[in-house]
Amino acid sequence: YQVHGWRENSFCVSKPVTLTDANPDAEVELQFPPGRTFAGVVLNADGKPLCDAGLKTSFELPAGGSFQLKSLFTDENGRFQIENTTPELGKYSVEVDTPGAMTEWVKLDFGSQPQTIRLKRGRTLAGRVVQAGTGYAIPGTEVRAADPEHFQLPMLTARTDADGRFQFTTLGDGNYTFYFGDGQLLPDKKYRADGNTNLVLALKLYQWSKVKPKARQAD
User: Which of 18, 54, 119, 200 registers the highest number of CB atoms within 10 A of its CB?
Assistant: First the structure.
């Protein structure tokens, strides 16, 4: 066993301990190491500083266990800082969240500061979600897009509007699977992020789903 401690952006871990029938108890000591500051800068796809870009930060222990940390934003010069980090104990990553740019996890390099993160242009997929069989639009349902073949591409989330329409503009170069909490996609297949804005996703709703399909209005 190994015990870890977590305080804001800092982590500490105990020495491994083994518990047996003969020795079922053990004492562990946790001590936070001195915290370090990480500095970085975010550039858009044209190489210009990106201000007010949201960054989701995370930390991963080598033995397993991932932790979502407090989000932050870049300043007017595209710069950001993460205080009180403990990089000797694990891996820090950021996910830059800004419209039109590809969303990906970027590993922070503490040996190269300030680290420059240059974003790539995002790819688009958009369309409508309809009820399988009737073709009625399904408003207000959550659509999740994931490319399980590329670990650096996080799962993205959108929600359909009143006419069942959805849009993703921050996808990467990959083949995406769509997931729904309200039903099963028919057929269940992957979609290339090729800019298609006229997808029609047919959803077989679960019996317990509370979404209400909407018939098209007569012209």
Answer: 119
Confirm if 128 and 166 have CB atoms less than 8 A apart.
yes
DSSP letter (8 states) at residue 183 = E
Mean pLDDT of 51-78: 93
Report pLDDT digits (tens) over 69-111. 999 999 999 999 999 999 999 999 999 888 889 998 999 999 9
Model pTM?
0.83
Distance CA(80)–CA(115), nearest Å, equals: 10
